[in-house]
Amino acid sequence: MQVISHRGYHARHTENTLPAIRAAMELGVAGVEVDIQLAGDGSIAVIHDATTARLWADPRPISAHSAESLAALGTGEDRIPTLDEVLQLSADYNIPIILDQKSPEVALAALGLLKIKGLEGRVAFCGELPGLIEVRQHSARTEIYLNDEGLFTPDIRILANLKPSAINPQFFGVSLGLVTSAHAFGLDVSCWTPNSEPELRAMAALGVDKVMTDNVELALELVQ
Fold first, then answer.
1. What's 51's DSSP letter?
2. Looking at residue 92, which CATH number applies to its domain?
3. Other residues' Cβ atoms within 10 Å of the Cβ of residue 195
4. Is the Cβ–Cβ distance between 105 and 43 less than 8 Å?
C-alpha cells in the first residue's frame, strides 16, 4: 500500500505550504496531494479553501487575490505557494503530486500550465467530476483519480469517459467488493483520509493500493 501525503505533512507545518510538502517528501512518501484554486490574476494558488479566512485570517475569496497578495498573507515559506513552486519542489525530489481541483476553470488552467512546462501526463488530478471531465477531454495522457462515493464500482459510462487509473472514495466507502471489482477492471483503489491505526490497517487488509492520509509517519511505519 502506497502512502500519499494529504496536503503535505501538516502535523508540523501549515497545510499545502512548501515546508509541509517538502517535509512529506523527505519522509519518503509515494506522492503528495495538494489543493488548487484560481486566483483573480489567473495564477494557480495551492490552497484548499475558497477563501483565505481559515488559515490566513483574511476573509476574501481566492478570486479577489493576486499571487502577490496571497503570498503576503504569510511569512517566508509559510505562505500560500503557487502551483509553479510546488511543481519545482516535485521535480527537485522526484516525487509526484496529485492536484485536487474544485472546478473546470482551475482544472483547465492547471492542465494548461502543465502542457507549457512539458509536464502533461506526469501530474495526476483528482477532485470534482466536472473538472475531471474537462481534463480528460483536453488530455488523453493525464492520470485521473476518480473521486467516488465508494461501496460499488462507479457507473461504467463514467469509467469509459474518464479512463481513470484509480477510484478514489473517502475511506469509509471502501469495501471488499469495490476493491475486487476495481482490480478486475484494471483500476487501483485509492482513498482519503484514513488517519488512525485501525483505519489504516483496515485499508491495507481490504487491499487498497494507495491511501491519502494526514498521519504520514504512522502510515509509513505500518507499511514498512
1. B
2. 3.20.20.190
3. 16
4. no
Cα dist from 148 to 63, 128, 145, 151, 158, whole Å: 27, 9, 9, 9, 11
Per-residue b or e along 113-140, where b marks 16 or more CB atoms closer than 10 Å to that residue's CB = bbeeeebbebbbbbbbeebbbbbbeebe
d(CA 212, CA 203) in angstroms, rounded, equals: 11
pLDDT in tens, 142-179: 999 999 877 777 888 899 999 999 999 999 999 999 99
Domain containing 136 equals: 2-223
| Per-residue pLDDT tens digits for 18-73 | 999 999 999 999 999 999 999 999 999 999 999 999 999 999 999 999 999 999 99
**CA count, 13 A, side-chain hemisphere, 114:** 25
* Structural domains counted in the chain: 1
CA distance 209 to 7: 19
Q: What are phi and psi of 61, to 5 degrees?
A: -70, 160
Q: Residue 32 burial by CB count (10 A; 0-12/13-18/19+): exposed, middle or buried?
A: buried
d(CA 138, CA 132): 10
